[in-house]
Amino acid sequence: MLKVTDLGYWYDRQANSLFEHVNLNFESGTSYAIVGQSGSGKTTFLSLLAGLDKPRAGKIEINGEPINELGLTTYRRSQVAIVFQSYNLLTYMSPLNNLMTAMAITNAKHRGDRDYARSVLRKLGLSDQQMTKNVQRLSGGQQQRVAIARTMVCDAPLVVADEPTGNLDETNTKDVIAQFQKIAHEQHKCVIIVTHEPDVAAACDHAYRLAEHQFKKEA
Ligand SMILES: Nc1ncnc2c1ncn2[C@@H]1O[C@H](COP(=O)(O)OP(=O)(O)OP(=O)(O)O)[C@@H](O)[C@H]1O
Ligand SMILES: [Mg+2]
């Protein structure tokens, strides 16, 4: 579904490339973990996959179409759901309205369906009371779960997440990983997760390690 060919990226000079000549395929219905040392370029790689930044070299195609030809704005709106390290929720709204707004903006098939949004938030462990108060009054872990719920109610076939369990305790981490597996296997989306946690990586269908400027499959 998502194909990366000869991808390269550097911030200041090519001599300081984070990665070069990267060739990878990501399929629907499958979850992937990206691991690697701090500063190796994982977040940067995700931002390229999400169409937030342009590669210095190589190309990214979705279902055979280069994402820059599709237009990065169109690509982001119609194809990608993102869970950031910081959650990027609409801070002046409740969890419920964050989901309703995301569905409206992306023209999702469940747009307007508050009961559906409520049921997804409930599945992620938010109480009816929590889902109607301002998201800024929720804990980090609760906000992270709202960000995950938002990807679930929208139709984007690609879900990228940057350390989605970074703020969660063990129980919530297990829940969240189970939800991501459902997004991949039941919603048939392509899920790509950057993580530092070996347990999270092991729970995904495949794992790649970014080291020495290359992505290598973990055993
Ligand atoms: N906007 C920027 N301008 C210049 N250099 C940057 C910029 N953003 C990141 N970098 C550098 O690029 C390298 C990779 O950063 P990136 O955030 O992709 O790493 P990461 O693997 O996600 O690390 P972490 O695990 O700590 O989140 C780092 O050395 C960082 O300092
Ligand atoms: Mg990072």
Automatic annotation (TrEMBL):
Domain ABC transporter per the UniProt entry, residue ranges: 2-219
Top-level taxon in the UniProt lineage: Bacteria
One GO MF term: ATP binding
Keywords of the record: ATP-binding, Nucleotide-binding, Transport
Family per similarity comment: Belongs to the ABC transporter superfamily.
Protein name: ABC transporter ATP-binding protein
Organism of this sequence: Lactiplantibacillus modestisalitolerans
